[in-house]
Amino acid sequence: MATDDLMSRALETLADDDPLSVEAIRRLVDLADVPESMTITEAADLLDVSPHTLRYYERAGLVAVARDGSGHRVYDTEAVRRLVFLTRMRLSGMPMRDLQHYVSLVDAGEETVPERLDMLIEHRDTIRRRIRELTLSLTATEYKIATYGGSTGPDVPSLDPTTS
User: Among 33, 32, 12, 40, which Cα is nearest to 24's?
Assistant: First the structure.
């Protein structure tokens, strides 16, 4: 699945001991080494999504893509930068309708910044809640592994009160 590959690549970009920060995200979206224009196949490979996904995002109005003389899509750095953001938001669970609304706000101009900020704060809170839910699920899984005598790994605290 493309989103799994994208997440793996994103996590590999960050060292295990690096704090997750805005600067880490800037490194992920640094497009200095990206060509000024790309075909749909090149853009899809870069983003670890399918060309079908890119065409879907275009049909949904999330990204505008120029065409060359033959009618083939040409992805410039602005389109790729937007697609990086879109893929991160989709990966984090943002619904398509919310992405469409957000993009329409971006396209409407600077006066929509407060509404965009509100949307992102709400989405951040949703992500944080999901992380807490996943952390609880991980803890339950680690508990069951320990119950069956399995190793939960060095980064997981022992569930045995005599060894803690």
Answer: 12
Cα 85 to Cα 91: distance, rounded to the nearest angstrom: 10
State the pLDDT at residue 28. Answer: 54
Q: For the CA atoms of 21, 23, 89, 114, what is the dihedral angle to 10 degrees?
A: 90
C-alpha distances (whole Å) from 112 to each of 27, 64, 103, 119 are 26, 20, 11, 11
Which region holds residue 21: left if phi is over 0, alpha if psi is between -120 and 50, else beta? Answer: beta
Query: Distance between CA 5 and CA 10 in Å, rounded?
Result: 9
Least confidently predicted of 15-29, 47-61, 127-141: 15-29
Placement of tokens 């749909």 in the chain: 40
The alpha carbon of residue 51 and the mean position of all alpha carbons in its chain are separated, in whole angstroms, by 17
Specify the pTM: 0.70
CB within 8 A of 100, min separation 6: which ones?
60, 61, 62
C-alpha span between 115 and 96 (Å, rounded): 17
pLDDT in tens, 29-42: 566 667 788 999 99
Q: Are strands 73-76 and 37-38 parallel, antiparallel or unpaired?
A: antiparallel
Query: Is the pLDDT assigned to residue 14 strictly greater than 90?
Result: no
